[in-house]
Amino acid sequence: MSTANNGPETHLTHLDEQGRAKMVDVGDKDVTSREAIARGHVSVQPETARLIKEGLMKKGDVLTIAQLAGIMGAKKTSELIPLCHPLPLDRVDVELELDEAGSRINVTATARTTARTGVEMEALTAVSVAALTLYDMCKSVDRGMRIEGIRLAQKRGGRSGEIILED
Fold first, then answer.
1. Which pTM does this prediction carry?
2. pLDDT of residue 3
3. Which among 117, 90, 108 has a CA at the least distance from the CA of 37?
């Protein structure tokens, strides 16, 4: 287990010697099993949480649609993030948990691949797209929603091994 390296030896891998954008060459990396877990949440009004729980939102089953949107978003990550490598995804799971007491919907995405580069961006994109979908589906009843705390929680595989930022 390690933590993120933000020390003085960190360099920007997406810039060449002239400072121009470049896609990182991963051709010399080993193909390994990789996994990333990302999290975030959408804060809502208590009434919005109640409507979601009781299935009374006019646009339908909010949680299932947001789950599917998150999975679809993960699959499109390299089309959305300019220098992100397209990856063959082995698995993407998006879990949404309605936390009525906290007036929020917690979103967790797990992405897995067997590839030469990590799958963090896919997990983060899945959480982001699921949260945006929740916002879109609920905005007619709750203009005060907030998408918050999107972050990488864990990653495994590749040269950097396992990084656990939170359980």
1. 0.86
2. 46
3. 108
